[in-house]
Amino acid sequence: MDLSPAPPADRLTSGEPPSPVTPPGGCRFRTRCPAATPRRAAEEPVMRRIGPDQWVACHHPRGATVS
Predict the structure, then answer these.
(1) Which residues contact 59 (CB under 8 A, 6 or more apart)?
(2) What predicted TM-score, i.e. pTM, was given to this entire model?
(3) What are phi and psi of 47, to 5 degrees?
(4) What's the angle, vertex CA 41, arms to CA 36 and CA 46, rounded to 5?
(5) Helix-strand-coil percent breakdown of the chain, rounded to 5?
(6) Cα 42 from chain centre
(7) In the structure, how many helices (H) and strands (E) does the chain have?
(8) CB 65 within 8 A of CB 54
(9) Along the chain (67 residues), what's the average pLDDT of each consecutive run of 10 residues?
């Protein structure tokens, strides 16, 4: 029996997951991203630090201040 709490509704992701065999170009998460832009289809995001122990590969990470 799994007694772990369910994730909050604002943390759930909708849409279809990208194909692992033929992933989309650019950001591979863009097919499920609510903030997808044309840039995400053209450029793959690079891994960058957004905090002391936090790294993200996203063009527009929520709440992150990236220069």
Answers:
(1) 27, 37, 39, 40, 43, 45
(2) 0.56
(3) -70, 130
(4) 90
(5) 15, 10, 75
(6) 15
(7) 1, 2
(8) no
(9) 64 73 85 80 90 88 55
